[in-house]
Design goal:
This protein is of the alpha/beta class. It contains 14 helices and 19 strands. It folds into two domains: 64 residues; 443 residues, Rossmann fold (3-Layer(aba) Sandwich).
């Protein structure tokens, strides 16, 4: 598997450019003659692109026992023959089935919480995040190792966690990547071209249809919307057009944020056909992160009051009030997927919309969990999972699932949600079982006691060992990704300069708290795969 992704440029230039990746001229295969396995016997291979003269055939001389690498032209295929002693021993026509899969969406699609290289920790240094105005000291925290990367001829100081896409926290652990990879591995005659443009923090308006620069500052942040990025890719990076829409596109102003929207489009006669679209969208549109804040921020604390004043907290009633506009956003997204990405109106089931998993319910799927240490929230003093509020938030999530299912049914999309019950009991409170000292399931954040680390040394933390829980906790986010807060944001929101506590806040949330772990992403992929196979089989059977 080649990602073709340039980590510094944040584009598909590592395999000869966008055009070569999206519209390949050939595929390299491995062929072998089974019937001729005598040693020291030579076979002559002739490879001729279908429809071309015999004189253009490429000739290869190899031992009959050896495997041969052959470049098969795409999409025409090639006639391949093998001869020995002047006789043709085998002949066949080879055409590679290349499937184009696109991944769109938000942090649940990008793989947020699961960096390709997680943070590395040191045991010989201790970090302090200052103190709250109340006098609570934030001492004894682990300190991460940091690195530098080369960018545009200069050194850029960066975190010790790295992502396939740093601004978007897009990771190879994403369920979308797993689906594409599995579809490629299970059929040796199939090639899969996967284009993932999902981005953490994106919603339908800001991200999928209009540009969104991601959640972490980086020199090469996205400049186009996800739909626009895919449209440009369908054209191989050249020859696309740009359209600007007035209020009529937003259904009479139903989505004010999209008035004056500009979108790229590849002419249909040039556009690479999309076989599957994997889509996760809707959670950020109703304020998922702010709904989480409603459930975990302690009452009557400065942080809670600050969050409420800065609209960083959303009540369930307020989240539900956004549902009508979300329906309008889905409608506009549908229009863009068909008109700009050329998904046939008669084949809308190629679009697979995935539900959001359960986060804070116990195994019965009804009872919420609560607490601080038990929910992996003890690293920051302002957190405590409130059971009643968690239940209210899960009720909103359930209603969102219903809205998504009804939307998919209305538009003919495919909706996958069967994994939601599997996450019950594997969420926030699936921690260490009493009497079992297993660090991989220990939710407490390691802290320096003055003489030793408790309950374990930071270097012992392993981000990807098997766990009971499939949801990243606040402590997990701190230890796995540890996103730093930019100086500009600190100055903007905390003019008094006491922003060190906010460093701790962001490090324990923006690195993927309340998102699926790699195992959770795998569970989602496992549920999507049968549906994806069925859709591909349906349309491949139709020619």
């Amino acid at each position: 598997m080649r990602t073709c992704w340039h980590l510094v440029r944040q584009d598909l230039s590592a395999c000869g450019g966008l055009a070569n990746y999206i519209q390949p001229r050939s595929h390299r295969i491995i062929a072998r003659v089974v019937a001729l396995q005598q040693k020291e016997v030579t076979c002559t291979w002739r490879v001729r692109m279908r429809g071309s003269p015999q004189s253009t055939a490429k000739v290869l001389e190899r031992a009959c026992t050896a495997a041969v690498e052959i470049d098969i032209p795409y999409p025409t295929g090639a006639d391949v023959s093998v001869s020995n002693d002047g006789q043709i021993r085998a002949a066949t026509t080879i055409r590679v089935n290349d499937i184009f899969i696109v991944g769109l969406g938000d942090s649940y699609a990008s793989g947020e919480g699961n960096p390709d290289r997680p943070v590395r920790w040191r045991d010989d240094r201790v970090a302090s995040f200052g103190s709250f105005a109340s006098g609570i000291r934030l001492d004894g925290y682990p300190e991460r190792l940091t690195t530098t990367v080369a960018y545009a001829g200069r050194k850029v100081h960066g975190p010790s966690a790295f992502w396939l896409s740093q601004p978007c926290h897009r990771s190879l652990y994403s369920y979308q990547v797993r689906v594409a990879l599995q579809l490629a591995l299970e059929d040796p005659h199939r090639a899969v071209t996967f284009l993932g443009v999902s981005c953490s923090g994106a919603d339908i308006a800001s991200g999928l249809l209009a540009p969104w620069q991601g959640v972490e500052p980086f020199p090469a942040s996205p400049t186009r919307s996800q739909v626009g990025e895919v449209a440009v890719a369908q054209c191989g990076g050249t020859g696309y057009e740009t359209r600007t829409y007035g209020p009529s596109f937003t259904s009479g102003g139903a989505v004010p944020a999209l008035d004056g929207l500009t979108l790229q489009r590849c002419p249909p006669e040039r556009a690479r056909k999309i076989d599957l679209i994997l889509l996760s969208a809707g959670g950020n549109d109703i304020g998922f992160a702010k709904l989480v804040a409603y459930a975990i921020l302690k009452e009557n604390t400065p942080l809670r009051r600050f969050s409420e004043l800065s609209t960083g907290v959303l009540t369930p009633r307020q989240a539900l009030s956004r549902f009508p506009e979300l329906q309008a956003r889905y409608k506009l997204l549908r229009r863009a997927l068909h008109n700009h990405l050329h998904v046939p109106w008669t084949e809308p089931d190629r679009i697979i919309l995935t539900a959001y998993p359960v986060v804070a319910l116990q195994r019965d799927g009804r009872t919420p969990c609560s607490g601080t240490a038990s929910a992996g929230l003890d690293g920051f003093p302002g957190y405590r999972l409130d059971g009643r509020r968690a239940a209210e938030a899960e009720q909103v999530a359930a209603r969102l699932t219903t809205l998504m299912r009804d939307t998919a049914r209305k538009y003919g999309w495919t909706f996958v949600s069967g994994y939601r019950p599997q996450f019950a009991g594997r969420g926030m409170c699936a921690g260490l079982q009493r009497g079992r000292e297993i660090h991989s399931d220990q939710l407490m954040l390691p802290r320096w006691t003055g003489s030793t680390w408790y309950p374990y040394a930071p270097s012992q933390y392993r981000a990807y060992v098997p766990r009971q829980r499939w949801i990243r906790t606040s402590n997990d986010a701190f230890l796995t990704a540890h996103v730093d807060l930019s100086t500009e944001i600190k100055r903007k929101f905390l003019l008094n300069g006491n922003y060190r506590p906010m460093d701790l806040l962001k490090a324990s949330t923006f690195g993927g708290a309340f998102h699926p772990t790699a195992e959770g992403q795998a569970a989602i992929a496992d549920a999507v795969l049968p549906t994806a196979r069925a859709i591909l089989a349906k349309y491949l059977a139709d020619g």
